[in-house]
Write a structure and sequence with these properties.
Elements: H1 3-9, H2 13-20, H3 26-38, H4 47-52, H5 57-76, H6 80-89, H7 93-110, H8 113-127, H9 137-151, H10 157-177, H11 181-199, H12 206-221, H13 229-242, H14 250-265, H15 269-282, H16 291-303, H17 307-318, H18 328-345, H19 348-358, H20 368-384, H21 388-406, H22 413-429, H23 436-444, H24 452-455
Helix pairs in contact: 3-5, 5-6, 6-7, 6-8, 7-8, 8-9, 9-10, 10-11, 10-12, 11-12, 12-13, 13-14, 14-15, 14-16, 15-16, 16-17, 17-18, 18-19, 18-20, 19-20, 20-21, 20-22, 21-22, 22-23
C-alpha cells in the first residue's frame, strides 16, 4: 500500500472535496480521480491502476509521489509543524517520517539556515509527541540535537533546556505507558537533578520553566505520590509570568490545564474545572484543540455532575475525533470517553456501542494501560446494566488476566481493586457476600483523583 493510498483512506469529507479540486493534468489527474472514487473502499487495489493505464511501476510510483506532495501542500501549505502534526494525528506515523526525510533532504540542499532551524524544531516537536508504542526515543533525541546545531552561536540555555526536557517528557510518557515507570524512575530523576544544578542558580528564564514543567511531569507519571505535582506546575506558571517571552505562548495554556489536572488529583474538582476552562478558552487555537486536555475537562465536568457542560465538552473536543482517519490509539481513548459519558447518563445502548468498539482492538494495538481500562469498562458496564451473571463471569476472567499481565505493578493496583470490588458488589446484591463491612472499606480505599469518575459508577 502506498503512502498516497494510506493518506486518502484517512480523508474526511472536506479533505476529499479538496483532493478532487487539485490542479492536475494528464495521468496525474486520471489517477487522482481513481483514488478519489475508489480508495476508501476496503477492497481497492492500486495494482489494477498500473495495468489499466499501461504504466511502468516506477512511473506509477513517481506520479503517486507528485500527487501526494501536491495534496499535502494544498492541505497544509509550507508550515512544517502543521504538516507533521496533522499527519501524525491521522495515525500515519510512517508517512510523517517519510515526509520528514523528504523535507530534510530538500532543506539541506537549499542551504537556508533559518528554514533548517524551522524544520528541525517542527520535526523534534512532533517526534516527541508520537503515540506509544510508535514513539522513537533515539530519533527524538537525534532531531533535538540537529535543531540545536542548526542554531549555531545563537543557541542559548533556554534552547538546550527545551530540547533536553521535552525529550525527557516523551521518554517519561512512553516508559509509563509501557509499564516501566518503576525501572525508569531513577533514570529520569538523575536527568532532572543534572538540569536542576545547571538551571536554577541563574536568572529566571525559559530554562526554569522547562525544568519545573518536567519536574511536574515526573511527579505526574513516575513518582510514588503526587505531593509535589501542584507546586511544580505552579512554579512553572510563575516562571512564565516573570519571563513570558522566553517560551511559546501555548505552554501557558498547557500549564493552566495541568494545574487543573493537579487539582483533580487532590480532589479539588471545582478548582480543577476553572483552570481547565481558562487554559482551553484563552488558547483556543492551540490548547483548545487538544483532545487530551479537552478530555480531562470533560471528565472533571462529569465528576462535578455538570452534565450539560460535559456534553458540550464531549461534542467539542472528543466527538470530532471519531472518524476513519483518526489515529487508532486516539480512537481508543475516544471510545473510552464515549462509553464513560453514556454510563454516567445511563444511556446503556450507546455505552455498549462504544464498548463494542473497544473490544475490537487486538492486544498488540494497545498499551498495558489500555488493556487494564478495557477490562474495567467491560465489568462496570454489565454491573451497571444489572447483568450480574455475565458481570461476575467477566470479573473472574479479568481478575485472572490482570493478575497475569500486570500484577505486581503498583500503577495498576487500582484496576485490580476496582474489578474485585464489582465482583463483591454483585455478591452483596445476591446476598452471598460474607463480610459486607469490608467491602465498604475496600471501596472507600479506592484511589481518588481522576479515578473518582469511575468510583461514582459503583454508587447506587
Amino acid at each position: 500500500m502506498s503512502y498516497l493510498l494510506d493518506f486518502v483512506k484517512s480523508f474526511d469529507e472536506n479533505e476529499l472535496k479538496q483532493f478532487r479540486k487539485l490542479d492536475l493534468i494528464g495521468k496525474e489527474e486520471l489517477l487522482r480521480d481513481e483514488y478519489a472514487k475508489h480508495a476508501q473502499q476496503k477492497d481497492f487495489s492500486e495494482a489494477i491502476l498500473v495495468s489499466k493505464y499501461k504504466l511502468t511501476q516506477s512511473y506509477f510510483d513517481k506520479i503517486n509521489s507528485v500527487i501526494l506532495d501536491k495534496t499535502i501542500a494544498r492541505f497544509y501549505g509550507d508550515d512544517y509543524n502543521k504538516v507533521f502534526s496533522n499527519i501524525l494525528m491521522k495515525g500515519l506515523t510512517d508517512l510523517m517520517l517519510h515526509e520528514q526525510k523528504i523535507v530534510e533532504r530538500r532543506i539541506l540542499n537549499a542551504a537556508n539556515p533559518s528554514e533548517k532551524t524551522k524544520f528541525y524544531k517542527a520535526a523534534f516537536e512532533n517526534l516527541r509527541s508520537m503515540f506509544h508504542p510508535k514513539y522513537n526515543s533515539k530519533l527524538t533525541h537525534e532531531y533535538g540535537e540537529k535543531y540545536l546545531r542548526s542554531l549555531g552561536k545563537a543557541k542559548t540555555l533556554d534552547d538546550e533546556s527545551y530540547v533536553a526536557m521535552l525529550s525527557l517528557y516523551g521518554d517519561i510518557i512512553s516508559e509509563q505507558l509501557a509499564g516501566n515507570e518503576v525501572s525508569y524512575r531513577s533514570i529520569a530523576e538523575a536527568i532532572l537533578k543534572k538540569w536542576e544544578k545547571r538551571v536554577l542558580p541563574g536568572k529566571i528564564s525559559g530554562a526554569h520553566f522547562y525544568y519545573y514543567f518536567l519536574k511536574a511531569t515526573f511527579h505526574k507519571y513516575l513518582a510514588e505520590d503526587n505531593k509535589e505535582l501542584l507546586s511544580a506546575y505552579t512554579q512553572a506558571l510563575k516562571c512564565l509570568a516573570e519571563n513570558p517571552s522566553s517560551v511559546e505562548a501555548k505552554f501557558k495554556g498547557i500549564t493552566l490545564c495541568e494545574i487543573g489536572f493537579a487539582n483533580i488529583e487532590i480532589n479539588n474538582f471545582k478548582t480543577a474545572q476553572q483552570f481547565y476552562e481558562r487554559g482551553l478558552n484563552e488558547y483556543p487555537d492551540t490548547v483548545g484543540k487538544s483532545y487530551y486536555h479537552g478530555g480531562n475537562y470533560f471528565t472533571v465536568c462529569l465528576i462535578n455532575k455538570e452534565y450539560e457542560k460535559a456534553q458540550r465538552a464531549f461534542e467539542k473536543y472528543l466527538l470530532p475525533r471519531i472518524q476513519p482517519g483518526t489515529n487508532r490509539s486516539v480512537l481508543f481513548d475516544m471510545y473510552m470517553m464515549g462509553c464513560l459519558h453514556n454510563l454516567h447518563l445511563m444511556n446503556y445502548d450507546e455505552a455498549f456501542r462504544y464498548l463494542s468498539e473497544l473490544q475490537k482492538y487486538r492486544k498488540n494495538e494497545i498499551t498495558h494501560f489500555g488493556l487494564a481500562m478495557m477490562r474495567l469498562y467491560e465489568c462496570v458496564y454489565f454491573y451497571r446494566t444489572q447483568d450480574f451473571t455475565l458481570a461476575a463471569a467477566l470479573v473472574k476472567k479479568n481478575l485472572k488476566f490482570l493478575n497475569k499481565e500486570i500484577g505486581g505493578n503498583p500503577s495498576f493496583e487500582y484496576y485490580l481493586l476496582y474489578v474485585d470490588s464489582i465482583g463483591k458488589l454483585i455478591k452483596q446484591r445476591l446476598n452471598t457476600l460474607r463480610s459486607p463491612e469490608k467491602l465498604q472499606e475496600q471501596i472507600a480505599s479506592l484511589q481518588k483523583g481522576i479515578f473518582t469518575v469511575f468510583n461514582r459508577l459503583l454508587e447506587d
